[in-house]
Structure formats: structure tokens, C-alpha cells
Amino acid sequence: MKTKLFMLLFGFCLSLSAQIGINTTTPQAILDIVSDTSAVLFPRNLDPTANIKNPVEGMVVFDSKQHVLQFYCGLKWNTIQFLANDTLFNPNTGTVKILGGSGGAVPTFSGYNNLSTFTTLSNGKFTANDVGVFYYVTYSHPLTYQIDVTRWPYNDPNYWIKDPSKWDDASICVNTSTIYKTQYTGPTTTPTTAEIVSSVSSTTTPNSIPVSTFKPNIINGQVHIWRLVLNFEKNQNAAVRITGRISNNYASYLKTTALPAWGNAATPQYGSTTLDFITISAGTPETGYTLEIAVDGLIQISVQSFTRMSLHVD
Q1: Which comes out higher in pLDDT, residue 261 or 85?
Q2: Which three-class secondary structure state does DSSP give residue 237?
Q3: Would 87 be classed as within a structural domain?
């Protein structure tokens, strides 16, 4: 009887104060925990998605299988990830991997050859008249992406302000009050063609060649890594160098790879090679980058993929 009376009085006191203090007699919130030597231990769960049948928005649990904190935003469980500077995952990071143009079509190589004649290479085959000349890489629209790799941050500087309308997947939980959000681990979003590549234009090159212009994030100081993967077929027993160049109104970046002297008409050399470029955004009004390829020998080339990786900016 005494126990029941005590619990009744205790519950009555809590309902009056509406605040609970642990190690403090002056709680500053509904629950105020003070400790210099310990911490809060969240419930540990091997699989929150499967085991918590009726989650409520705002729930936090420790996923003891993945060893991460997760919270429920009302639609799905999300992983809380922290970087070295203790801020939440920053939305200006991400990867966009382009596999091809419309229907997965490989891009074309166009330019003026050694005879000053405008040409589009047939099946990416560089002849003697094409050696030493940079050809622009142009994709047909709309672009085709590798969905399981692409994590899309918008190019617009307003992307720093969290606006749910900027996302094309309504199931993403976004905190609109800050510039940060938790990392999204569900179905991926992909950009429209206009958001990653400018419409094919002939006004951006000295010789008015229609080209694709690849957009960086317009965030001053942000570092981007661009990875170009090329497939090749070499029928000449001679070394060949392949040089890639991306450039815009601020800078030009070159990368060269050398293929050894191996292969002939009877036994062609097949393979793939990678060219990586690192750029630093100058912010607005920086334009997008054109992509060009040059070779110093006879070879046939096709683009396997072109990927933009945007690194974290505080």
C-alpha cells in the first residue's frame, strides 16, 4: 500500500513539474541529464527496420549490427553520420556517373583534323589525319546514369538551403531549417540532363563545334574529381599516348596515359584505361567544362563512362 501511494505521489509531482532532472535539481528541459563521467546509452537493436514494428517520428536507436545511430524521420530509418568537424553529412558532396547518352549511346568525337576539315570520327577510330588533334566529346540527350553509384547534389548554389522541392524523391527526409541533412541511403536520385550537362552548343568553342559542357557544383573552392574511362582497340605494334583535357573559362586540365607497343592487325590489343582530372571550382560565374581527347598514334577509342565526384566543403 505504501509503495502504491509513493508511486501515485511521484507521478503526480512529475505531472505538475513536467520536467525530470537526473543529477540536477534544476532541470532546464523535459529531461535534463547531468554527468561528468558517463553518457546516455540508447537502446541497441540488431535490425531497427525489421524489429521496431510501429516506429514513431523522432525515434533514435543504436543499430548494433551496423554500429551506427539511426533515427526515424516519419518515413524511413536514416543513418546519422558525422564527419571530422562534427557536422552532419554535407549535401554538396556526391557522385554522378554517366554511362552514355540517349538509350546508352556512346558519345562522339568531333573536331577539325590535320587537314582543317571538320569531322566526326567513325566509331571513335583515329586515323593518320587525326593524330595530335583534340576532339571534343559530345553526348546525345537525355543522359544515361549508373543508378547504384549516382548520388546527386544540385549544381545550384541554392542547394545549400534545404528545399524539399529540389529532390525528385518525396521519401527523402530533409531538415529545412539548416544547411545540413543526414545522408540518404534509400533509392537514389539522378539529375536531369540540363542539370549536369549544358545543352549541346556551338558557342562555347573557338571553332563553333557543338559540344557537351559538363557542369561543376558552383560552390567556390569545392574540389571535383572527374574520371574518364576509355575502351580501346590498337592494331599497330607501336606505343600510343592518349591525352584527355577538360577546360572552361577559368582553367584547363590535362592528363595523359601511355599504352605499350603491342598489338597488330592479326592480334589487336584490347583494353581500357582511366584518366583522372582534379578541378577546383571558382564559383559563379564559372562555366562548365568541355571534354576533349587527343592521341599520338593510330587507335580506336570509345568512352565507357565519365564520372564527377564532388568532395566535401564546409
Answers
A1: 261
A2: coil
A3: no
